[in-house]
Amino acid sequence: AVYGTVNDLAMCGAKPLYLSAGFIIEEGLKTETLSRIVNSMSCAAKIASVAIVTGDTKVVDRGKGDGIFINTAGIGIIEHRLDIAPRSIKPGDRILLSGDLGRHGTAIMAVREGLAFESRIESDSASVSEIVEKLLKAGIQIHCLRDLTRGGLSSALNEIAQSRGLGINIVETTVPVRPEVASACEIFGLDPFYVANEGRFIAFVPQADAERALALMRSLPLGRESALIGEVGTNASGMVTLKNEIGTGRILDMLTGDQLPRIC
Question: What CATH number does domain 2-77 carry, 3.40.50.720, 3.30.40.10, 3.30.1330.10, 1.10.3720.10?
């Protein structure tokens, strides 16, 4: 809840400052569970350098609230003049990915299915605002940012390509996916390109800024596995193509339906 709202602000190029938190609690929820959630949110807010300044609580009848629902909203400040949006993307822009794909979605699925793997898969849930702030302070001319939540990398790329009306070309071998995540996705019948992430984003930057931006991202712990994964084409197809390791390509479509039950 905290990181999701913080990251939404960061994707607008804003510095997150304040959050609100609303709780809808089902009658009978254990105090220990509520305490663990509140403490976790407090810890996340401190890590993200934001303050939870207001909120509200409502209690609903037993059996009508699925335990607890949490709603957050946030306010930030924009300290630059960049227009960070799909309309700013230009042909030749490079696409940077802030880390490996698919850990959050596969971690949630493993818990829900009661599966344990030899290598534990931990969610990638994190605040990305520090990386974005560093890029902005370094003068990187960011054209667009997008976090990779529902629908994962593929859906985010398709939304942007269709909105801007330009083709996007991705090189599959440059996209980091950890072996344990790839194995879990095979078991679940999932494609890591469509799996939800909660601490990953893509950045569209001019070719001239790409290498410097990538180095800045990799200099931070959360961005250590950042990669340059593709570029914006000159055609007006509005499609996303993926070039595999043997040099052939395929179209990456928008996700249809939900791969995972909604959690946010």
Answer: 3.30.1330.10
